[in-house]
Amino acid sequence: MKFLLKKRKHQYYLLVGVLLMVLFFIGYRLITNKITSEAEGLIEVVIKQYAKEKESILQFDFNDFNKFIVDTQKIIESSADLDRSELKNRLLFNSELAFSEENIDVSFVYFLKDNEVFDSYFFGSIDTSKNVLERVKSLEDKSQVFDTVLNLGGKTYYRKIIKHQLQDGTFVVFGYDINLLKYWNYFSQKYSGKGGYVTLTNNEGVCMLHPEIGYIGKHETSFFNKVSLNQILKNYEQQDYKKKKQVKVAVISEYLNLEVMRYYDVIQVGNSELILITSFPLNIFIKESINNIKQYLLWMSLLALLTFMLILGFSRSQLRSQHLRTLQYEQERKRLAISNEQYQQKNARLQLSQLRKKLNPHFLFNTLNSLHVLIGLDKTMSQQFVLKLSEVYRYLLKDREANFSTVKEELHFLEHYFFLQKIRFNNSINLSITDKSEGEALLKKIPFLALETLIENAIKHNEITKKNPLFINVLIEKDKIVVSNNYNPRKGKKEKSYGVGLGYLSNFYAFYNVTSFKTEVLDKDFKCYLPLLSK
After folding, report:
1. Which of 134, 305, 362, 409 is paired with 268 by a 20 to 30 Å CA distance?
2. What is the model's pLDDT at position 352?
């Protein structure tokens, strides 16, 4: 009788144990699916943010390459007010600026009449004239901007060209070649990432950037096996830019020979579209992470065979660990979300640093020469000159948290700086400052060294003689400062330009999303509009 009771009791415990095991494995399955889904979502957020960061970097760099086309368009738009010689000088100056860029190997300017070249200018070590002219002569439009990828002399170039017909029927052709292999070496070393890799093509599918350089310059159809170029471009056109979604597809990588998740984005560069492809190995970024989670839960199920209470405690511990891991993913997502802003801010600060490094030796050399002459002529003025020079360098070397100053600070610095320039040029240079804001604008902010940059830019690029003095006007309004000078470009050999002054100002305002900064040549005056910031 006791034996039967014990047997029934054991059968009851066995049934309860089996039921608990069944319930646990059902719960295990449900929890696994839930955690897997959450983990996949968090990992995908990190991956997308990484792809967006690369998109931001490449969009900034290639739009920076495109600035010379934009500048040429501005020059051509003002060509009606220029004679042929002045137009040519401006185009050559812009072409020389383009050639000075580290990743641009060739720049050129051609003048055509009846499809025949009658004037040409070329900067670089490879003569590309035949290749350029054959393409340009085939264009029927009177004005057109286009780009292409081509191979020349064993190198691969991204060529930007603008063709425009002047009022007299003459065609102007301006362009330059960007060395893609050189740029890829720079990009891959400076922005190397873990796990994923970046590919860039033009809107025809020709590869421009790839970790395997053998692909660069080739039309690689494997990039668009599962999603076509037309689908990607159409998806980009149909969406609001701020809300645009990436095209995502899982494929076998032609480079790694592994299954990867690819994200396709469109980068707008001028009037051209480039296709950014960011690939992530699934085994590394998704499947491996998910398998680890499943393995942890499997160990939990094995421990449940020993005791339900231990499994319950262990599951709580694992859920707590998973919660911490989720918080870590969230922190990583936020870090990547601000990385794009940090990159733009670092770029603006880098240009400011370059501006200060350029100013110090160049400016010091000129001022010391002026001081050397002044010492023998006027001792009192020499002492005042030294005091002004010390004030200038005290302002330059002062530590500051941000790269902007108040209008009042910049005007005070400009007073010392212009005093030194006045000694150097005497009556050949003049400065007037007018405050129409009635003092309201003095505490607002502008970029650090903004006024000095524009004064130095005017001195560097204009003829300054007794017969043709330089007149600089600073007009302070409530919402902006307008700096203007009579425009009289230097002839013959020009002073060396580092090309960072106006670029620094442009990038500064771009970082703060201020679009009203601009420069123009109007009525033979060069004008620059500096918006005022309230913060």
Report:
1. 134
2. 52
